[in-house]
Design goal:
Keywords: Membrane, Transmembrane, Transmembrane helix
Number of domains: 1
CATH superfamily: Reverse transcriptase/Diguanylate cyclase domain
Radius of gyration: 18 Å
Structural class: alpha+beta
Helix content: 40-55%
Order of helices and strands: EHEEHEHEHHHHHHH
Length: about 260
């Protein structure tokens, strides 16, 4: 009997400087809140596995090649603590069992190892970008992109590093404009929420390179979706559903986001 495969993605997230400023307890509570938020955001995505563990770590596994990256990007933009930012080791690929059957605390799989390896590389990087993919270690995909996985990994990580270079140059107000625009999708609405005039919002949006940052997010997601579509033509890609769900739920607490 031919094995049935399922497309999944994984992130393992840690928090920078989590032991500084006596922030441990506060960050622990916040990470629990983020796990609850992820469960709500993914309610229409089918089964997922997400857990806060090992103090300042979150592990996520969900169906869809782009799911983990989309969630990670939104988390990074709405994150409450500017001095304690998260960083995400990412992987995606294929498994031959349903997620419903997986015990995330005991699951040993090469894709988990890849995400862990990517996270460890970020931990050792003095510049520490927000995201890193690992696709070329420990694991061989049964599908077509396998023969190009090293090239895709290099492409993604180069784009992510350039994205990070733009993000880290944003001022606090530019960061707020970019993050709010990601959620509400209109500069006029951003201005209303932030109490700024349209020209001021436009200026911060341009100077903060928000268009380039958000374009890179969309392009990376689209490329990953294309890889999944080439291997799983019969499986619906729900990245738009996920992004819409995140936006709608974050809008309900938008004032909390803007207070950061």
């Amino acid at each position: 009997m031919e094995k049935k495969y399922y497309p999944i993605s994984i992130f393992i997230a840690d928090v920078s400087n989590s032991s500084a400023d006596n922030m441990g307890d506060e960050l622990t509570v916040y990470l629990d809140e983020m796990v609850q938020a992820i469960n709500i955001w993914t309610n229409e995505m089918g089964p997922i596995k997400v857990k806060h563990r090992a103090g300042d770590e979150i592990i996520f596994v969900g169906y869809g090649y782009s799911t983990a990256y989309i969630i990670a990007f939104f988390l990074s933009r709405i994150w409450k603590y500017r001095d304690h930012k998260p960083y995400f080791g990412l992987s995606f690929g294929d498994i031959n069992q349903k997620l419903e059957e997986v015990d995330i605390e005991k699951w040993i799989h090469p894709l988990i190892k890849q995400a862990r390896y990517a996270n460890d590389l970020l931990k050792q990087d003095q510049n520490r970008p927000l995201f890193k993919f690992e696709l070329d270690q420990f694991y061989t995909s049964p599908f077509l992109y396998n023969q190009f996985r090293n090239e895709f990994e290099s492409l993604f990580n180069t784009l992510l590093y350039l994205q990070y270079s733009l993000i880290k140059e944003q001022t606090t107000i530019q960061e707020s404009v970019c993050s709010t625009y990601l959620i509400v999708q209109q500069q006029k609405a951003v201005g209303k929420l932030l109490g700024k005039t349209p020209p001021t919002i436009s200026s911060h949006f341009k100077k903060g390179k928000s268009e380039e940052i958000l374009h890179s997010f969309n392009e990376i997601s689209n490329i990953i979706n294309s890889l999944q579509k080439s291997s799983y033509q019969d499986i619906e890609i729900k990245s738009n559903v996920l992004s819409h769900s995140i936006r709608e739920h974050v809008k309900e607490n938008i004032n909390t986001l803007l207070a950061h």
